[in-house]
Amino acid sequence: MKFKKILAAVAAMSFAVAAFAGCGGGSGSSSSSGAKTLKVGSAVDFAPFEFQDETQKEYQGFDMDLIRAIAKEMGSEADIQNLGFDGLIPALQSKQIDVAISGMTINDERKQNVLFSDPYYDSGLTMVVRENEESIKSFQDLKGKKVAVQVGTTSAEEVKKIGNVEVKELNTPADCFMELKAGGVDAVVNDRPVNDYYIQKTGATGVKALAEKLTAEQYGIAINKSDAELQKKINEALKKLHENGEYDKIFAKWFGEQKK
Ligand code: GLN
After folding, report:
1. Residue 27: predicted pLDDT
2. Given the CA of residue 153, which atom of ligand 1 is nearest to it?
3. Is 125:158 a contact under the CB 8 Å cutoff?
4. Contact 240, 34 (CB under 8 A)
5. Which ligand 1 atom sits nearest the alpha carbon of residue 154?
6. What is the model's pLDDT at position 25?
């Protein structure tokens, strides 16, 4: 009888341990290959930073390569989940993910809710208009116009500051570009490298990107507010990748000879 009780207690304990390991294990949980898993969230619709290529099994892009290299440096494996951009910070807060990498601009508002790694990419906002557009040459010309932006982004915030702009907030940059082509809006405001990639690499026709920059922004990897330890590890890994040339390799793969 006593023996049975001990057995039951042992079984209950190992169940509890297994359950504990399975939930919120975060950067400590294990993948099938035995390596630790870094649970990564990204809104995978932001080429060339994160996007899906039908011919490839894995998510592609600068951020995707960078976070895989960072995870590897930390002795982990990145397990990347595709989430909506405005769902990334909530997913960090609920610990569904350990980090978010998604061309996310470091700003004070977000810093109230998450920690950021050191900056890893210099960006900013530009706009795309239809090729035959004559009345929009600068951001001030957006007054009285209709503009599409991605919901929850710095673009959405900055365009509202211009004043007297009719802002349409859509789910993805692809939705914004479609709306522009269909004539539903007069301009799209979005991150410069994404606008440039859209025009140059996807062979988009009938639209042009304007050179003027509305803001200068820097991207960071977002981390749960209480996980300063993970922030430190990510920064160390990032530093190592800068030192050993891996960052430069990944940069050159996606941006060629462009200045950093
Ligand atoms: N850099 C912008 C922001 O942080 C847009 C990011 C994105 O759409 N993935 O708001």
Report:
1. 47
2. 10
3. yes
4. no
5. 10
6. 40
**Where does residue 172 rank: exposed (0-12), middle (13-18), buried (19+ CB within 10 A)?**
middle
- Tell me the best of 63, 64, 102 to mutate to test the pocket of ligand 1, counting ligand atoms within 8 Å of each CB and taking the most: 102
Average pLDDT over the chain, rounded to whole?
89
Q: pLDDT tens for residues 8-17?
A: 555 555 544 4
DSSP 104: P
Pocket of ligand 1 (CB under 6 A): 43, 46, 85, 102-105, 150, 153-154, 191
- In this structure, the strands spanning 215-219 and 121-130 are antiparallel
Between CA 83 and CA 69 the distance in angstroms is 21
Closest-lying ligand 1 atom to the alpha carbon of residue 150: 8
Which residues does residue 41 pair with via DSSP β-bridges, in sequence order?
81, 100
Give ∠ CA 61-232-41 in degrees, rounded to 5.
Answer: 35
> 0.70 exceeded by the pTM?
yes
Cα 6 to averaged position of ligand 1 atoms, centre (Å): 55
